[in-house]
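Action item from last meeting closed. Structure (499 res):
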């Protein structure tokens, strides 16, 4: 015996289907979005597994100049989709259960086209073209009645010093992707430090109509100690959600002592550069919220495209305006010689650079003798943070050239940095955290000692007459402080916590 729910479900799709397509078929469309370099893409629709040009049902884009054989030829100059445009291609009525391939061909070889399949007007998610081309498969299915998914932005840093940390929980969007309306939609956010829950909040319920999205906010959470934090977002509705696979998102943030990173440690696209024979820069933007010293910079050099072993490179630090545009060169790191494949290098700033609150670009410098190969990740990126420049090309965001990447360049704050003549004896600071007295030992006589608060204000300064210094910190406000020691041969910095 059929249940009433099944009869109503069958009747709904029967009426909807017959209203637009013959029985057993549904309407399918493909939205195609291009980057700032148009006219270089072609695609056709074929039965799954047939291959480009075999049993073609539809073909679109620059048909005359590219076709199935034009991948990477770099010969197309007009026709098809233009720059920065979105085109909706109608595939008409396709049979439920059949599977198809989108065979994407890129003439230039750098991708840049995004395909979004919609079935009965319900978004099935994007396919992002890359390189010289890809094959994207989809099957025609009847959309869910009750289904929501959740979207949010990950915290823009994967590693961030505790002195710079802010709210790591972002707002979210819940979309009703089924054919029916949903009720009581909520977003829950939980933050775990290790396995311990340190924050949990659920939004007020909302009703969301089919095909509509709704914004959800939360109060947020700011870590107070270093460690690994996992942020878990989940969506829920009163109805039984028919696809739970898209109801949750998980991000991980590491709160560190000194390391600032945007990358996730995955060099998934190999080395990127600005082209051989050109002088220029590629860099990541970092925002300092509390004044600190930048002591060194870490960078991953890929060195797998062509052998650049033996070449030297260095990193430059620029101040930036409110939009992130680099303004002025502040410092240049020491040079390092490339001697391996997929290798990290640590480049010191001598002396360390004091950074006030603001935005700063850290960029690898490339000369005209070779093409730099900077490690990069395409699986994580934040718009407006990766900048590039070269001869006759002023500073521009990398995404304007179709590169949505994060470079594997990291800033190290308050790690030990010194002048060329390094003292073999490192100062010791204890106890840390401190409540009443702070001891600094292994000092050279005549060392200038400065204490700087989280606002960048120098609140203490003395020239030592002994190898040991004891400071009364009982009147200091609780928080983070930087100790800067200056001698004729070295400059170093460390930090302590007053509690």
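Sequence:
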């Amino acid at each position: 015996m059929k249940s009433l729910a099944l009869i109503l479900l069958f009747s709904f799709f029967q009426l909807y289907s017959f209203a637009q397509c013959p029985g057993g078929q549904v309407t399918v469309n493909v939205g195609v979005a291009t980057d700032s370099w148009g006219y270089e893409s072609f695609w056709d629709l074929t039965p799954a597994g047939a291959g480009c040009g075999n049993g073609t049902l539809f073909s679109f884009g620059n048909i005359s100049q590219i076709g199935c054989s034009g991948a990477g030829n770099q010969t197309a100059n007009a026709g098809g989709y233009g720059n920065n445009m979105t085109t909706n291609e109608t595939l008409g009525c396709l049979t439920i259960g059949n599977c198809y391939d989108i065979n994407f061909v890129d003439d230039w070889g750098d991708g840049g086209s995004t395909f979004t399949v919609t079935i009965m007007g319900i978004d099935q998610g994007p396919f992002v073209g890359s390189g010289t081309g890809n094959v994207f498969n989809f099957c025609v299915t009847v959309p869910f009645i009750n289904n929501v998914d959740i979207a949010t932005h990950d915290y823009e840093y994967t590693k961030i010093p505790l002195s710079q940390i802010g709210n790591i929980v972002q707002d979210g969007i819940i979309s009703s992707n089924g054919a029916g309306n949903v009720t009581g939609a909520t977003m829950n956010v939980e933050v775990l430090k290790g396995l311990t829950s340190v924050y949990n909040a659920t939004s007020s319920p909302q009703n969301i109509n089919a095909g509509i999205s709704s914004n959800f906010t939360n109060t947020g959470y700011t870590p107070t100690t270093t460690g690994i934090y996992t942020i878990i977002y989940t969506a829920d509705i009163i109805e039984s959600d028919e696809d739970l696979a898209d109801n949750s998102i998980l991000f991980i943030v590491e709160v560190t002592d000194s390391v600032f990173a945007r990358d996730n440690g995955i060099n998934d696209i190999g080395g990127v550069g600005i082209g051989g024979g050109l002088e220029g820069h590629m860099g990541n933007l970092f925002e300092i919220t509390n004044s600190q010293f930048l002591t060194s910079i870490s960078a991953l050099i890929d060195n797998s495209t062509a052998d650049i072993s033996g070449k030297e490179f260095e990193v430059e630090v620029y101040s930036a305006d409110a939009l992130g545009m680099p303004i002025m060169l502040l410092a240049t790191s020491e040079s390092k010689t490339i001697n391996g494949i997929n290798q990290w290098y640590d480049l010191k700033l001598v002396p360390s650079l004091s950074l006030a609150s603001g935005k700063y670009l850290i960029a690898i410098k490339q000369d005209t003798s070779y093409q730099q190969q900077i490690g990069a990740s395409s699986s994580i990126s934040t718009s407006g943070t990766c900048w590039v420049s070269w001869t006759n090309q002023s500073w521009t965001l990398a995404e304007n050239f179709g590169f949505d990447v994060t470079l594997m360049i990291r800033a190290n704050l308050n790690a030990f940095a010194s002048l060329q003549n390094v003292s073999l004896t490192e100062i010791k600071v204890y106890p840390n955290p401190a409540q009443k007295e702070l001891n600094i030992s292994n000092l050279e006589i005549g060392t200038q000692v400065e204490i700087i608060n989280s606002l960048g204000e120098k609140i203490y300064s003395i020239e030592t007459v002994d190898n040991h210094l004891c400071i009364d910190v009982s009147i200091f406000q609780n928080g983070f402080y930087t100790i800067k020691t200056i001698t004729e041969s070295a400059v170093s910095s460390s930090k302590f916590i007053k509690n």
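Note appended to the action item: Confidence is low (pLDDT under 50) at residues 1-19, 416-424.
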